[in-house]
Amino acid sequence: MAASVTVLTRDDIAKSAARNIPDLLSEQVGLSVKDLFGSNGANASVDMRGFGATGPQNTLILVDGRRYSDIDTAVIAWSSIPLANVERIEILRGTGAVLYGDGASAGAINIVTRSPQQLAPALGVAARVASFRTHEGHVAANFASPGFGLSATAHGYASDGYRANSRNEQRNFLANARWIVGPGHLDLRLGTDATDAGIPGSRRVQPSSGTDEYATNPKGAQTPLDYSSRDGRRAGIAWNQQFRDTDLSIGLDWRDRDSRAFFVTRGVFRADSLKLVSLTPRVRVPFSTGDFTHRLTVGIDSHSWRYASRQANRPENVARPINFVRGTLQDRALYLSDSIALSAATTATVGWRSERVRIDLNDTLDPAAPGFFFNTGAQPASAVLRARAGEIGLRHAFLREWTGYARVAQSFRFARIDEIYETDLAFNNQFQILRPQRALTHEIGAEWRETGRMLRTSLFTTRVIDELHLDPFTAGMGNTNLPPSRRQGLELEGRWQTTPSVRVSAVYSYTSARFLEGILPGGGSALGANLPIGGKNVPLVPAQKFNLGMVWEFAAKTRLTSSLAYVGSQFMENDEPNSLGTKIPAYTVADVKLAKIFGWGAISLAVNNLFDRKYYNYAVRNQFNNAPDRYAVFPLPGRTVGVSAEFSLQ
Q: What is the pLDDT of residues 161-183, one digit of tens each?
């Protein structure tokens, strides 16, 4: 493939000191992870190649090749995919819009879960205890025969958390069955997940008033009574069959999610639901034209979402909400991608995608509902939006060890439903359906591989037009298409097996994300109206990021894993003009893990944030005139110590 791709294997995952998928992704080149509370990834979001606050909406998450990112801005339920269930993670940088469509402007991350056919019959139990009264347990069972396999896992996590009101409880269950059908297979997957978590809010800092809650009480809670919960269910069936040289794949997936949040201080309770049905047939056909051989992929994506949001003043009044927002979204796409072997050393890739979205929205206002206070209802809205993606790439093997590639790709993003539902200047609710975002990426790269050693480098530039983003400057709320911007950067990734027992890895990213021109519209904010932002940095994008890792197997079945991560400073969210004068500070965090493997299982000791550094990776600038120098930070945990044990019966 003519692209920058990293594959994290099961061995890479087992040897990492990461506790969850966001931890693991934060170690990879070109990826930046933002976390609010450090609660096992419950509030973590992933940004690829410098999109900042909208990184999660431009980095598509897939599970087993199926879309896991939704049409709202809710974070991914990472707890529903424990690391123990992951076979490998495929990271595609620089847009995957032809194959995956909406929301893959920066790239795509495909999490491949473990198949029962790949595992020996076994029963496994794992347990972990850690700082902040953290308890975690995992039970897995697997059965496999030549024609059938069945696996099931149950996982639970509970922790008081680093901060007040940051207790987090997570539970999930996964089951996977596979039938071998001739030269193909039929997969059935089922899953449930549940999360209950406190919302401690931020720590406020305002130099003009002498306020610095981050320095005086970093573990405190601004909102000691706020909480949230989330329940998800999913099912999927996939049929893969080979007819001579032709591969046919048909996927049918269903997801259902209910989430609730009570913001006690504001007197707001929200109960949201989201349902998805997807049908994704795809066929791969090899053929030849003259001296060239082709592998053509043709597919159709059909996604149907139903969204509902009930907004009341208290949980007991949700049956009669003040605002009841409902919406449907029908997404249909056709795509083609052809891999052409021009010679034994050269492969070209061309692809095209056309996508059509129909959105229907309405908002029912009940002035007689409990807690009604000058609320407004949005007028119904409908729209049909269209966008296209395309790419052309070339990959060439110069020598046995050296490979180079180049590609140009166009991508797009549609607005999420909760981005569409916002307020106007007079704080009246309305549906704001904006133009689709477009992006054009140019990229070149090279890779060198030799036994035990690897080096990969990429240079990229992405120009974004009509970028979709929440606009905090228009009376404090709203949505807008931002002026043109550009992301460009350098990525370096290397791995070296220095001795049979020592492996060293390192990654470095330099990312420049800037607005090219234009005015940020709005008024009524602490910053003023119609601010020129040409040449300014996009917030929440660290210019430099470096990770160094080492795995040392210093004795038989005994290894020490260590990692060091440096993340450079970055402007805070809401500081598009770069005028606050304070940035999120750079930070360095080290993790270590000692593991011993036995015939019956393994035990390990892990220390995260070894040197107990005080840091945060998300902060937001105040947007109101009453405190122009105020900002809010979200402190992350200090040193965490955890001990785990795994037992397996085969």
A: 999 999 999 999 999 999 998 89
Q: What's the DSSP call for residue 98?
A: H
- Under DSSP, the state recorded for 600 is T
CB atoms within 10 A of CB 96: 26
Tell me the pairing of strands 86-93 and 107-113.
antiparallel
Distances 456 to 15, 394, 405 between C-alpha atoms, Å: 21, 16, 11
* Helix, coil or strand: residue 97: helix
Q: Where are the domains of the chain?
A: 4-649
Cα dist. 484→86, 158, 382, 444, 577 in Å? 38, 44, 27, 22, 14
Calculate the alpha carbon distances from 470 to 94, 106, 187, 209, 251 in Å.
23, 19, 40, 28, 34
- What distance in Å separates the CA atoms of residue 4 and residue 23, rounded to the nearest whole number? 21
Owner of token pair 């249909």: 332
Identify whether the C-beta of residue 285 lies closer than 8 Å to the C-beta of residue 296: yes
Amino acid in position 73: T
Q: How far apart are CA 20 and CA 17, in angstroms?
A: 9
- Give the CA radius of gyration of the chain: 25
Amino acid 460 reads F
Question: The tokens 């796409």 sit on which residue?
Answer: 333
CA dihedral 450, 451, 455, 458 (to 10 degrees): 70
Distance CA 92, CA 98 (A): 12
How many CB atoms sit inside 10 A of residue 120's CB? 10
Per-residue confidence at 524, pLDDT binned at 50, 70, 90? very low
**CA–CA separation, 597 and 464 (whole Å):** 49
Q: Are 134 and 167 in contact (CB under 8 A)?
A: no
> Per residue in 32-49, pLDDT tens?
999 999 888 888 999 999
Q: Which CATH class is domain 4-649?
A: mainly beta
- Classified as helix, coil or strand, 367 is coil
The answer to whether the beta carbons of residues 234 and 190 sit under 8 Å apart is yes
- Other Cβ atoms within 10 Å of 555 Cβ, number: 10
* 17 touches 562 (CB < 8 A): yes
What is this structure's pTM?
Answer: 0.94
**Whole-number Å distance between alpha carbons of 324 and 421:** 12
Specify the DSSP element, H or E, that contains 419.
Answer: helix 417-420
Burial class of 265 by CB neighbour count within 10 A (0 to 12, 13 to 18, 19+): exposed
Give helix then strand counts, H and E, for the chain.
6, 39
H-run or E-run covering 213:
helix 213-216
